[in-house]
Amino acid sequence: MDRKHEVLAQVFGYAEFRGGQEELIDAQLAGRDALGVMPTGGGKSLCYQIPALLSGGITLVISPLIALMKDQVAALKKAGVPAAYINSSLTPEQIRAVYKNLLAGRYKIVYVAPERLAAEGFLRTAQALDISILAVDEAHCISQWGQDFRPSYLKIVDFLNALERRPVVSAFTATATAQVREDIARILALRDPVRVVTGFDRPNLRFEVLTPQNKEPVLLSLVKARAGKSGIVYCSTRRDVEKICRMLQDHGVAATRYHAGLSDEERRENQDDFVYDRCPVIVATNAFGMGIDKSNVAYVLHYNMPQSMEAYYQEAGRAGRDGSDAECILLYAASDVRTAKYLITHSVTNDELTERERRQLMERDLLRLKQMVGYCKTTACLRGYILSYFGEAHAEHCGHCGNCEAVVTERDVTTQAKMVLSCVRRIQDHIGYPVGAALLVRTLRGSRDRRILALGLDMLPTYDLLHDTPRTELRELVEHLEADGYLQETAKGGALTLTDRARDVLFYDEPVRILVRSAPKPKRRTAKAPAPDDALFEALKALRLRIAEHEHIPAYVVFSNVTLRDMAAKRPTTMAEFLEVSGVGTYKADLYGEAFLSLLNGHHEARET
Ligand code: ADP
Ligand code: MG
Ligand code: ZN
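That is the input. Now the predicted structure with zinc ion docked in place:
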């Protein structure tokens, strides 16, 4: 066994590397720079932690969120790695103590907030150190084209220049766009880095889009059906976060909230409640999540559609990091598009941008929004849609998403479609410009609305033609016609016009068939393991929680769900067998082996009798 496999097994308790890890580790060990692009949960941390342990000097890790360094360092310490962090949550004395230990060579890995890099004291300390590797986590923060530009990331460059000897520099991100990747390499001035971009598929995630009439009760039942599991509910606005969190609490769900309008202290507390499993559900804006390494999130619900596929995949990807099955469900409504457009066109602008750059960014964002809406409306495989978006080849059906599992039936809607399309044409002929879906639907249903009367739309032959079709059904039909290319939005957005395809229907009697999705078949529970295993798993979880509370660390830092499940399946009875469990390294086996083995042996005996 080579040394990196030894460390993988002994320190982290894993038997094999995941895709991309080995190459990135080898590069750094050979003294080369490295750039790793892997999806959230892909295992980027190991890519710098293992080289750190196998190099002579110290590894500095730049990480954007101070609140989370604590957990990362706690996890390393529990694996027997001497580690520390330096950020503004420490007192000046504590920081001095860390500097002293650093100079005495007591740490292998130190997490540093980017702001700290420019601090006099830190720089002086760093100049006296033997730094083997500088690892930049969430490296997309350095690009102003990325989702989370952080100006303090630019300090990394000055810091590197201030060092007498340049360490190996490695950078990691989950952002897939080529432009951001280029920015990272260029701004950090990576030297001929080994680049690894792994596949973006996350097979353990199940994707689904729902379009309920009324989202709140649907959200509530989704959350209730997942009681006891950890989940994130994302909303677009602070107001919705407040409303949904209160609604869940009113129905007895232990939910907490997170958005930029709360005080730092409350944000930290609420985040801890979630990370430490005191509150299983957190309702949050997109301000929440970067750097959250909580590995046992079982579901991510989107109460609103996000503004881009990048944002969606990053947020949804926070589910199932430990590899367990997890769900990503998005609740879509047409009003989400309006909110997203508003947010894009009214977002606080960066003063460093010129007017032209600002307009370019806005156009880019509106295009991204369109692709996000496409995800919500597609009847094709959702995983396929995501992978295509990120430029990856994929099978036509994944068999594990809402659309692949849905029962799709074809319906002939030629008659109704003709009425709709003809109405679009007549309105435009009559008033000289096209209108949006809402006015179209009202005309078809014979509304006495003031605007309809003012425009004289009640005089059209198509007025009131679909009087008996419920508004929502008609709305859906219009959406289908748009998605299938019979109608298109005008460049300015909002209004609908006919396409050539629509003319074929109106003038050449082309039939219109739409695919109607009905809810997924109830999942057949494939011959699930018998109940005793569940009981054992629950008992292991309870023990883990007791340990975590006693040691003031998050439960997943003790062991991940995947590790507990493997433990329940393998039922080790000796220390040697315990070490065979995935995620159990020697140090953790020393710490927790006895407690878990005694539970496992007790369970074993209980089963024998
Ligand atoms: P990322 O930073 O890429 O989002 P993490 O580094 O947080 O992902 O890793 C996600 C999870 O995967 C963690 O629970 C980690 O322990 C686990 N993991 C990483 N590498 C491996 C591996 N080779 N085998 C099994 N699990 C792994
Ligand atoms: Mg990470
Ligand atoms: Zn699919």
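Residues 44-45, 137, 293 surround magnesium ion (ligand 2) (CB under 6 Å).
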